[in-house]
Structures are given as C-alpha cells and as structure tokens.
Amino acid sequence: MRIIVVHWKIRHGMEDQFLHYWSTRALVADRSGLVAEFLSSPADRQRLPWIIWSGLDPRWTSFYNVGLWRDEAAFQDQIGRFINNSRPPLTFEAAPRERVLLTPERWRVGASPLLAADAVGVQ
What we know:
This is ABM domain-containing protein. This protein is an alpha+beta fold.
C-alpha cells in the first residue's frame, strides 16, 4: 500500500469553493486501486494543545487529502500522471499545494472497518 498526502492551502473565504471542487471535479475515474481517500481539516489546537504541526499557517485554511492506494502504480495511473507542478495554483489556492508519497514500513490493523460509502455530495 502507498499513502499519498496532499496539503491544500486555501484562501480564507474560499473554503466552500474548494470543497465543491474537490467533491465534484477532482475525481478518481478508476477506483480499483484506491483503498480510501479522506479530505480532512485540522482539529482546533486551542482545544487539543498536544497538536504540533508546522503546516498550520494563519495565512490560509489548511486541508489535508490522505489517500490510501493499493500501490504506487495505481496512484500514478489514476492521479500522478496528471500532476504538473508548473501549473499555477487554482483561484481558491493561497499557495501551491504540497504532496508526499509515503511507503509504510510497518503497520497495525485494527478491528474497526474502513467506511463503506462516499460522503454525501462526493462523486
């Protein structure tokens, strides 16, 4: 398995535009190699003071897309081949997004299953 993390840096006030884009336009055409994908926003550091994360910047709203893929080839075929780092940011992006591909070295599997359906409104 491979884990892809994308840090989206969204202009304040344009979060809904970004969420709509991610849910309806940033699609995965063939999900056969996709295990699951989670677009997430950070929890409040005031409420959870143990959070230490350098990517949280007050200049923008951070979203993190965490994708679990069967292997690197599946990600490359469905998403990676379309990535062009020289493209300018989209209108709702405050700064270029950052990406990392993670290769698990060891793992644990819990008793709780992954979610079984897409979130409402996600295509």
